[in-house]
Amino acid sequence: QVQLVESGGGLVQAGGSLRLSCAASGNIFRINTMGWYRQAPGLQRELVARISSGGGTNYADSVKDRFTISRDNARNTLYLQMNSLKPEDTAVYYCNAAVVTPHREYDRWGQGTQVTVSS
Q: φ and ψ at 87, to 5 degrees?
């Protein structure tokens, strides 16, 4: 099984920056698309950004030009650089990975990391 562990969340003032990391470990054969999702209280989990194994990216409109997703395939690590943070970015941020084995592909989620942006 593959485990995902997020880090880098915290409390920041509006206009500030944070960098989230997500490290994958375990029996990794291959990881395809990886992504960051977030869930604010009372709301559904939503896509923030995702990146293919080849580096293709897409972003939610609300974070375009402020957030940058990247990955280090050699280290099986995903990143999210968040700049110009706004109070509405406050949420629990989850890492997701499409894990491929010789027999199947499955989704794996991290435990989440809290991001709080104060006004």
A: -55, -35
CB 27 within 8 A of CB 46: no
With beta carbons less than 8 A apart as the criterion, state whether 93 and 20 touch. Answer: yes
What single letter denotes the amino acid at residue 68?
Answer: T
Residue stretches of the chain with pLDDT short of 50: none
48 in Cβ contact with 36 (< 8 Å): yes
How many Å is the Cα radius of gyration of the chain? 14
The vertex-3 CA angle with 116 and 23, nearest 5°, equals 55
- For residue range 14-41, what is the model confidence (pLDDT) as tens digits? 999 999 999 999 988 999 999 999 999 9
